[in-house]
Amino acid sequence: FNPSLLILTICAHGLAKENVSSNFINERKGKNVVLGSLDGVLRRLFIDRNNLPGTYNDRGQKCIKKIIHVTETVYDHGMECMHALKKKCHTTHFTDYVSAPEKKCETTFKKNCHITFKQVPHNQKVKKCRTPIIQKCQEDNICSTHYETLCETLYKNYELEQEEPVCKKIEELRCKNVTHQLLHIPHDKEGGEGISPFLLKEECEMWPVKKCKIEKKKVTKVHPKTECKNVGRNICISSNCTLISVPGPEVCHDETQTQVQSIPQEECDLEPQENCRVETSLVPKLTPTKKCVNVPKEICVNTKKNPREIKKPIVKHWCYDPYEVKKAHL
Questions:
Q1: Which domain of life is it from (predicted)?
Q2: N or C terminus of the chain with fewer C-beta within 10 Å?
Q3: Model pTM score
């Protein structure tokens, strides 16, 4: 029984091989068996159809395991890496400040007043005084008109608005413009000198200041006013009587008179006024700047070195259909 010859025969037909029990009739006198054709070989095989070699698989075939040695090229596998710096840039913006004129306005109110006089009647006590002429006569009287002085004193009360200063200490904000150089901004031209850029910055501080304002207050004042006039009197004297022109003692009495007084009335209103001024202020500005950084980069490749051939045993499964083998040997 020779299994190798059986496997060779099954491979020639393209079929999976079984364990075939075959006996070749050889001349044992040192002569090899001469096979003419495949059919001749099969005719010289004695197959035991009930005891075919191999084990069944899930497809209904019989398979025979055979260990063979194959030549395989193997390598030493590795990895080589390179480190490099790659420059990457991006645009960033930083905040700068530039001076710019700015109009600032504030609204104030102006008081506009005018005074009118209103005639108001009222009763007032008047003191009347006169100086009589003294006469001394004993004969028949001769009458004539003589004039004597009559004075009237009026006491008038006035309500007036009097201006008085009212002062207080406050803290006042005082500002001034200060020049600052912008050192972080490049300004020198190549091969020459440039003018350093600058900005005007307003700096302020608090100062104590005494502020006064005029306020109007109502006060009552009494003003005496005396008016005198000549009043004619009929005086009768005798022809031989001498009229004494020397004034006699003053005679006074009080009277109540209705007087018409002009009372001042003030009417006021507020007129808005807008006051504007130009101030220099700092305005933020975004300036684009290119910024670059070196980013480390690693580049790796797989390597195959030291190639060599080795023999490696592998297991091959020779499978065949038992039905085809039986059919071929009928």
A1: Eukaryota
A2: C
A3: 0.25
